[in-house]
Amino acid sequence: MKFPENFLWGGATAANQLEGGYDLDGRGLSVDDALPGGKQRMAIIAGPNFDWTIDEQQYVYPNHQGIDFYHHYKKDIALFAEMGFKAYRFSISWSRIFPQGDEQEPNEAGLQFYDLVITECVKHHIQPVITLSHYEMPLYLAKHYGGWKNKQLIGFFKHYAETVIKRYSDRVHYWLTFNEINSAAHFPVLSQGLIQQNGANEPRNIFQAWHNQFVASAYAVKAAHEANPDAQVGNMIIYATSYAYDADPINQLANLKHNQAFNFYCADVQVRGHYPSYAPALFKENGFTESDLDRTSDELALLAKYHVDFISFSYYMSSAIDATGRVTENISGNLMGGVKNPFLSASEWGWQIDPTGLRIALNELNDRYQVPLFIVENGLGARDTVQADGQIHDDYRINYLRAHIKAIQDALADGVNIIGYTPWGCIDLVSASTGEMSKRYGFIYVDLDDQGRGTLKRTRKDSFYWYQKVITTNGETL
Fold this sequence. Notes:
Blueprint: E1 8-12, H1 15-18, H2 41-46, H3 69-83, E2 87-91, H4 94-97, H5 108-123, E3 127-133, H6 139-145, H7 152-168, E4 174-178, H8 188-192, H9 203-227, E5 232-238, E6 242-244, H10 249-272, H11 279-285, H12 297-305, E7 310-314, E8 319-321, E9 330-331, E10 338-339, H13 355-369, E11 373-377, H14 395-413, E12 418-421, E13 444-446, E14 458-460, H15 462-472
Parallel strand pairs: 1-2, 1-12, 2-3, 3-4, 4-5, 5-7, 6-8, 7-11, 11-12
Antiparallel strand pairs: 9-10, 13-14
Helix pairs in contact: 3-5, 7-9, 9-12, 13-14
């Protein structure tokens, strides 16, 4: 099955993981700036003592430097162009535009930086695919407003979205609203600014924050369509194909419930424009009722009118569900885990590798929603070794990506409407889950270690040349 002629091959990054320049040119702090690096990152920020304090005596903060894309963007985008990228998915740092998040006037220096990045993409015939909020809300909004459970954030985000969409709509045709919005089901710190101290342990807060984000997303859809009728706006979710561990009806039902609560809930609202029929039962299972949520008739009407145009999603792994307690071996994953699937291997970080699961995901999403699909994250986090001659041989990454691209081909043959593929971390960057540089995804190696030491030199890996050929042949040569 051939890929469509206009298929958007490319790569994906996030501002908080590569930009650096965290305190330059008027930028304010983001929630990600307060997250320490290291394997205990998630445990620390999920703990009861975490209060957004930046303690540089005790921790390292690799996101502050990233890979210094802020000063290397021209060279990096030129490398993307050399690979043949048709699209580059990146995010705008909200706190670079509105340092606290609640200002009326934007930071012009921040707007000018993204002008330069977008112009550089267009110069190389690369479509910018911009995420408005990728785990980097202004820290001030989390500390002083309590994060997304506060409805005031709807207005702040609306103003931010309208500002950047109006500024860049002549050159940007693809927008994503909230990155991996459903991740808050397991870890609301990154996407909602909720920690234990401001209500992360109370499910009602998470669902209220989701509602507020749904409304804010609808305002972004409205702004984009008014600025450019040809603009396309997508939501963005984690999709982890989920299997019942066995044929036990208890596990089959548990898997159905899991899919509703995690894989489908946010997409159902953002794509269909209304809350799903199972929502009241889901609320009850989480200890509250519909009347406990602050939702107005005007907001619900807005959701119905300004639903998204396409679904974008990350796919790294699948999960298995056991509700019987008979299976005791668990695995980790992209902010969520499950029981170990005996039929799958896993990465060094425990993420189960399942390319067939991507084909299943594409079919499930296509059948449920009947809108275009865009795979905006996929990849293998692995340690790379620089050889004595400077080369990086990463066949393990090539094998992973080849198998997943083949799964996309198979889904196209199944009749699925897929518009693009942008593998995650197309250039090495700071890992979101661990804050490490050693967990690398990129086609381009960046000389930095986990403590931020190194030359920042960029080096093409073997996968760089492999992906270049994939794009050149439009997927015919894998």
